[in-house]
Amino acid sequence: MIVVSSATSHTGSAVADALLAAGQKVRVLGRSRGRLRAFADRGAETAEVRTDDEVSIREAFAGADAAFVMIAPGLVPTSTDFPGFQQRVITAHRKGLAGLEGLTRIVSLSGWAANHPGARGPVWGLRPLEEALDTLTGVETIHLRPGWFMENALPMIEEVRETGTARGLIPADLPLPAIATADIGAVAADLLSGRRKAPRRVLELHGPRDVTLDEIVAAIGKAVGRPDARYERIDATAMRDGLLAAGFSEHMADGTTAMTSDVADRRIAMVQPRDAETTTPTTFEDFLARVIA
Questions:
Q1: Which of 26, 150, 164, 253 sits CB 3.0–4.6 Å from 243 for a disulfide?
Q2: Distance from CA of residue 2 to its chain's centroid?
Q3: pLDDT for 33
Q4: Which residues, including other chains, have CB under 8 Å from residue 23's CB and lie 6 or more apart?
Q5: pLDDT of res. 94
Q6: Residue 72 and residue 5 in contact, taking contact as beta carbons nearer than 8 Å
Q7: What is the mean pLDDT of each run of 10 residues along the chain (293 residues)?
Q8: Whole-angstrom distance, CA of residue 171 vs CA of residue 166
Q9: What is the predicted pLDDT for the residue at 32?
Q10: Is 19 inside any structural domain?
Q11: Residue 169: inside a domain, yes or no?
Q12: Residues in contact with 228: Cβ distance below 8 Å, sequence separation at least 6, in sequence order
């Protein structure tokens, strides 16, 4: 049995989809069993779980041979102490999974921000999650550190469609290791099922090539009939103000802006080279064609 946490998230659903397509026995976890119905229709077991409660975690993962683990939710816009919530989730998983009978393999969703010791905002908990899972004995643990999710560009599609301009804090010409969550899910599924062996405890994941936001916005513009589309860089104050206007708490607006500044200033960066082990196949153009279709 392979247990997949946060199966309604982009990445969790990609992992579950890949496992089910391969004929694996799967249990999917989420905060609401109703939202997991599509997986149940395909033969998966379903279970509700509180990610910050060790008893709930232990019950949900009982009987697992392998487990996909991540911090969920990865963002709570109204939170006033998100690191505190993340620490509760991490502690619950460390205690709930410790000594779990039959569990021999864990694949965690970390991220390229874990390469930066001073990671801030919503990505603060990635390295602590890795460190907590590494304390478990008798379990092979692999941490996936994917780069910049292509799904981050989804809000830009409507922005470009409506205004012809997308705005952000990251420099327009900064190469981003963009990756589709479907590809992350495929790698995780192969590792969980044993079809693939990781060459190291931490595995970074790139897409086939780096892309810039200038290239991303140009591709979006072409796809939605706005060939004049352009990317406009804003400063940190403007980003923070926009998040506050969207309903973020001051705490989460500050943290999200700090996280994005760490990417913009290259404090968050990939350290493993793009090679056969770290490269995934989906181009941004392929991703965009899929989501627009």
A1: 253
A2: 19
A3: 84
A4: none
A5: 97
A6: yes
A7: 95 97 96 90 95 95 97 94 97 96 97 97 97 96 98 96 97 98 98 94 97 98 96 98 98 98 98 96 96 88
A8: 12
A9: 85
A10: yes
A11: no
A12: 164, 221
Alpha-carbon distance of 116 to 95, in angstroms, equals 26
State the sign of the Cα–Cα–Cα–Cα dihedral 58, 52, 18, 197.
negative
Contact between 167 and 232 (Cβ < 8 Å): yes
Length of the chain: 293
The C-alpha atoms of residue 161 and residue 223 are separated, in whole angstroms, by 9
Q: Is residue 222 part of a domain?
A: no
Q: What residues contact residue 258 under an 8 Å CB cut-off, 6+ apart?
A: 120, 121
Maximum Cα–Cα distance across the chain: 58
Cβ-based neighbours of 266, under 8 Å, separated by 6 or more:
174
Residue 227, Cβ density class (10 Å: 0-12 exposed, 13-18 middle, ≥19 buried): exposed
End-to-end CA distance of the chain: 34
Question: Which CATH number goes with the domain that contains 200?
Answer: 3.40.50.720
SS3 210: coil
* Interatomic CA distance for residues 221 and 175, integer angstroms: 19
Consecutive H or E run containing 222: helix 213-224
Query: What is the number of domains present in the chain?
Result: 1
Instruction: Output the CA–CA distances (angstroms, integers) from residue 136 to 3, 32, 186, 260, in the order listed.
Output: 17, 28, 25, 32
Amino acid identity at 189? A
Quick check: is 108 in a domain? yes
Structural domain that includes position 44: 2-147+180-206
Tell me the pLDDT tens digit for each residue of 227-270.
999 999 999 999 999 999 999 999 999 999 999 999 999 999 99
Q: What is the DSSP code string of 121-183?
A: GGGTTHHHHHHHHTT-SS-EEEEEEE-EEGGGGHHHHHHHHHHSEEEESS-TT--B-EE-HHH
CB distance 30 to 16 below 8 Å:
no
What is the residue-wise DSSP string for 60-86? HHTT-SEEEE--SSS--TT-S-HHHHH
Task: Give residue 194's identity as a one-letter amino acid code.
Answer: G
